[in-house]
Amino acid sequence: MLWIFRYFLVFVSFTNLVTAEDQCRIEINIRGMALKGFVFKRMTVAAPHICDILCEREITCQSYNFNRKEQICELNNRTKDARPENFRSDPAWFYIRRLNGRAPLGSIPKLPARSCREIKASEGKNTASNKYWLDPSGTGKAVLVYFSPLYPYVSNFDENIVNNVKVHYSVNHFFFWISSKPKSIFTDDTANIDECTNGTHKCDMNADCHNTPGSYKCTCKDGFQGNGTDCTQRFNTAVFTNLGKSDSQGPDSVGSHYTGQDHNGQVTVSSGIQLWNVPHTGEYRIEAVGASGGYGQNSVINGGRGARMIGNFMLTKDEIISILVGQKGIRGGVNKNTGGGGGGTFVVRGNNIPLIIAGGGGGIKNMSEQHPGCDASINTTGNAGSNSPLGSGGSNGHGGDANGQSPGGGGGGFYGNGQGASSGSGRGGKGYLQGGRGGHARGGFGGGGGFRSGNRGAGGGGGYSGGNGAADEQFSCGGGGGSFNNGTNQQNECCFNSNKHGRVIITFLQ
């Protein structure tokens, strides 16, 4: 029987592997530092010791980063010794190397090293094995290589005959042979392969490739962030506005309003609602502000005030968040002594799941001083205006009522429309699920109720639940809309926004 043998030989020369400082190595947590770019698992934990336990359960875990404030644990598949260039200053974090049961870098297929130099840096004097797993190009396919002690000190390029196979070797190089044909799969210094030039690198299209001895480094370009192999547009804070639109209908397009801002290119508009493509998975702080109500020219008070609602939310990369920015109610061109209700501001994720909603202020006919019933509520129930008890507007996400003589329209809620006249002016605002259009006349986009023409009743504010429309009385106002907040670390304020459109501010936390 004919047997065919294929020989796989790898020769490596390591020098100066043991130093005095390697004789005793003690790890402590290093405050204000974190290893970046080698996180393979990220989670929220209650305490640092849990992060240590989780690291010990993962065979590939070499070290971890911990954020005390946010209680975030990041497991790394490298140590700071292996990748000192990625060990960065960050005051919110601390770093610690795994102390118990750490698998040496390159010792198992699941934990291949990128180069000989990386193994030496990571393991120091502990590089005693004669074989390691390497993945020089980062393809995910590890190769088992053998470190030969036969030629530990070779200063110049040479040729030898080993087992009748011609081999090439030099200091800090190893070569890979199939039969008698040598193929260099990695060189550490002299015969370096330039992956950046030959196109074998894995850098993102928005990253720059930098050749290094035996490997390469990917760095995201200006304006982008990530680990180099996955770069997305840098995002810190974005402010969503009414896009220059006023009155009862929403904007038609983004135009140039967000040019040069962090969310430029991430937003489209559909039926007045802005659709934002989330750029990164992580925690975001969202601030929603409802629009103010309109007011008659004789009123001392400038319309009911919109609410401000703030909370933290976990969002996922590429999910679509729907944002309706409320528009303020307006007084009429002829009917100058009354005003429409302000629109609520809505932030909603897929399948119409509300995240945070800020109620809009009620419209005012004439008021000489602030009245809490005119302002938006931080509770889910809308207000009833100046002539009814607080908290008796729309409830459970439905629209507000329109009671009394010649009233303005009730504000729209999340699920349903506000009450109002069936024709002419004084119509209720539309609910969010019905499109959020403001009621006729001059109710703000976001469900603001319209005022009744002839300088009569003012409209209620839109929101999670709509505020009631006001009856036609000399001193009166529509009720502010209700609000909703499903976030953590909440900060809510009922009476924040006066005589302005609403807005949404989204900040990426981590």
UniProtKB/TrEMBL annotation:
Transmembrane segments: none annotated. Residues 368-452 are annotated as: Disordered. CDD domains: EGF_CA, PAN_AP_HGF. Keywords: Disulfide bond, EGF-like domain, Repeat, Signal. Residues 1-20 form the signal peptide. It holds the Pfam family EGF_3. InterPro entries: EGF, EGF-like_Ca-bd_dom, EGF-type_Asp/Asn_hydroxyl_site, EGF_Ca-bd_CS, NELL2-like_EGF, Pan_app. SUPFAM superfamilies: EGF/Laminin (SSF57196), Hairpin loop containing domain-like (SSF57414). PANTHER family: PTHR31535, REGULATORY PROTEIN ZESTE (PTHR31535:SF3). This is EGF-like domain-containing protein. It comes from Pocillopora meandrina.
